[in-house]
Design brief:
5-stranded parallel sheet; alpha/beta; globular
Amino acid sequence: MSGDGDNGGPADGTRAHTGRADGTPADAAEGSAAESGVTAPDTAGDTPAPVAPAEDAVTGPAARLQKLFEGHRLTPTQRRIAHCMVRRAADAPFLSSVELADLAGVSQPSVTRFAVALGFDGYPALRRHLREVAPAEKPGGTGAYNEYQQAVQAEIENLRHLSAVLADPSPVLRAGRLFAASRPLPVLGLRAASAQAGGFVYFARKVHPDVRLLDEGGTMLTDRIDDAVRAGASVLLCFALPRHPREVVDALEYARAAGLTVVTVADSAFAPVAHHTDLLLPAPVGTGLAFDTACAPMLLGRVLLEAMCDGLPDAQARLEEFDAKAAERGLFVE
């Protein structure tokens, strides 16, 4: 299920050093969950499907599906089907075309055309292929877990997938350098993503001289983007999680038109924000509970903080200054 829920704020703690991950824009279809992979550059017309991580980093059924979609030019409807299949990667080899169409919210003929676009004679051929590269039996071990444990197991799988994507550190390192050089650094996160943005800003302010949280929408949002641009900002970091607010998409379009480089942590390479992003860093969310769980986006945010610290020569000095003042004030009880 996809929920518009908040996650808890950050615990206190500080540190500095290293980071990693990437993507570049891909046109987006609506959807809300778990896959990843680096995205191919945007071009006119339909956008190529996301490019999977390097061969040695591809693990798990979701990543294998990403690899299957690599290099194919898919329509928005076909990207929606692809997104659904990646989200339900364990079940995909066992779904009928009617079941897949229902889950993706498209017509059954659209599923057939999708299979043909991937180079198969039809959907049965695609499903046979998926069964050949997947385990022989539909996963049945989840029966040993209750629904809460299943949600935890799904998050563990999401974190494993994020680890595979981070095998290529260059995108995150690039993002860290961009954040370190931007004065100020605006960070956008609305609704469900506000907790991720707020957590990033809380820690970033300990090492970066000017970080600005944009966590309220409405007519003032573009004014605050303009304020950041006038103050010298060169980059905007966005956390975008489902359900994706329309004003986030509009804000990113406005930010790029204003000259900002947009770096986005999103739940999916197919997310609606992808088309309005210069550097997309995907981190899947869990959808097994009434409200989405976002462990992977939170962890990716911490990784980006680490990479930013590497680009700030005085980060360690700032942390030590904070620790000294905290001790002087008796700020923490431990």
